[in-house]
Amino acid sequence: MSIKVLILGAGYGTRLQRDIRADPTQAYSHLLGIPKALLPVGNYDALISAWLDVLTDGGIDCGSDLYIVTNAVNYDAFIAWTKTHNIPADHICSDGTTANENRLGAVADIEYAIKYFELDSDILIIAGDLLFYRDFKLSDVLIRFSSLSDDDCLTVTYAVPDEFTKRCGIVTIDESLNNLITHFLEKPDPEETVSRNACPCFYLLKKSAISLISEFLRVSEKKGEALEQRDATGKFLAWAINGGKCKFYAEYISGRIDVGGLNSYVEALKYFE
């Protein structure tokens, strides 16, 4: 199976940087200015270095099939990271933005990277601030993905408590239909849905579905929607799933750590000690 991996690392981590500055202990002040994807965690020099092990164990050749999109501010830091991990420097691209205020947004960054790297195959998209629990096996997910038809896509899901629905994309799943996702809500109130299946930014798209990224952005632009309406990848999933653009299926995992602010980063440190 031919698949390329795209890691999203173009965010500015404004909440984390704000938390670090406000921390009265200043125990993490040495991390100011470091993009979230490059934060050290456990025995790894960077969060995305943990993904290298996961991808390699799953049969992905990171030296040829891994790509990363970042911004102009953090580009040099990612290039420095490639030199110690045998990743080609030309597999890193900058979206050209210089601040959170002029960011493209995650979905537009996906489109930008696909065009920049001329990716023309099935693609795995991973948020650069995302970690899965140690029992995650990429090979199991890839086997499931390979069994789907050429028009179907796959993501992962895990159960969360009621109060966590506001932080996550929540999917409704029909287990009788091979875990078909029938509905997607982006960060809903608990009373909006009975489902507690959270869906992180980890998407396996078939080659035939990649064009939906650009279609979503053009539809949003035509409507005159603000960046917030097309920034998060969950907005794209809601549009694709609820609008019947393609079928998404779910694979269950035990959980994730999403590094947003300082508290979640400390959680990641404790988990990977």
From TrEMBL:
Domain of life, source organism: Eukaryota
InterPro entries assigned to the protein according to its UniProt record, in alphabetical order: NTP_transferase_dom (IPR005835), Nucleotide-diphossugar_trans (IPR029044)
Nucleotidyl transferase domain mapped to chain residues: 5-270
Name recorded for this polypeptide: 9825_t:CDS:1
The organism of origin for this protein: Paraglomus occultum
